[in-house]
Amino acid sequence: MVVPLKPLGRAKSRLAGAAEPPVRRRLALAFAEDTVAAALACPAVRDVSVVTDDPVAARALGALGALVVPDAPAAGLNAALAYGAAAVRGRRPGAPVATLNADLPALRPGELARVLAVAGEFPRAFLADAADIGTTLLSAGPGTELRPAFGGASRRRHLSSGAVEIRLGGVRSVRLDVDTGDDLRAAGELGLGPRTAGLWAVDAPAAGGACG
User: If 163 and its partner were Cys, which of 33, 58, 77, 124 is the partner (CB 3.0–4.6 Å)?
Assistant: First the structure.
C-alpha cells in the first residue's frame, strides 16, 4: 500500500475555515497516522509505504511501522505515487500495489479489506470518494502499471483510463477523505481514529467547534 503525504505545512489548506494553520498541521499528521495505522491493521495489506519529505511525518509514521520513501521526483502527487509503487515493486517484483489517500481518519481495516478483495479481481480498479468526484484508492494487479491520475475530478480520469470503478456498499470509511470542516464533521459522526479524535477534542474549541 502506498500512501502519499505532502509536507505538513502545505497540507489541508481547505480546512482554513475550520482550523488555524498550527491546528491544520497537527490534524494532517493525525489523519495520516490514523490512516496508516488502520491500513497496517488490515489483513489484506502486507506493508505500507509512505511517500513524504516531511521529517516530522516520516518519524511519526515510521514509528507506526510504515516504510518511508522520500519524494525523490518532487513533481506532485501522481509522480510521488508512481515512484512509491515502483519502490514497492523494486522490493517485490510483480506484486500487486494499491494507493490510498492519507486523509481517511475514520478508516476501518475491515472495510479496506473488502475494497481490496474486489480490487484484486481486476487489472486496475479504483474507489471514488464520498462526493463521487475524486478517488481515495487505486489498485494495479501484478504486472500492471498503476497510472495514477489523482487530483480534482479524478474519478472521471480513472474511468477514462480503463480502471474499473469499485461499487460496494458499507465501505464509507474508505471513501470519506477529509478536506473541509464538513468532511471532518462527517468523519466524526462515522467515528474518528484515536489520534484524530484525541487531537480534535483538544483543538476543536480553538477552531470554532467546526466538528459540532
Answer: 124
Residue 212 to residue 50: CA distance in whole angstroms: 31
For residue 154, what are the contacts with CB-CB under 8 A and spacing of at least 6? 133, 134, 135
Mind giving me the DSSP string for 29-91? HHHHHHHHHHHHT-TT-S--EEE---HHHHHHHHHHTPEEE--SS-S-HHHHHHHHHHHHHHH
What's this model's pTM, rounded to 2 decimal places? 0.92
Task: Give phi and psi for 182, each to the nearest 5.
Answer: -65, -40
Sign of CA dihedral 15, 105, 163, 46: positive
**Predicted local distance difference test score (pLDDT) of residue 207:** 45
Residues 173-191 have a mean pLDDT of 94
Please name each of the domains of the chain with its CATH number: 2-199 (3.90.550.10)
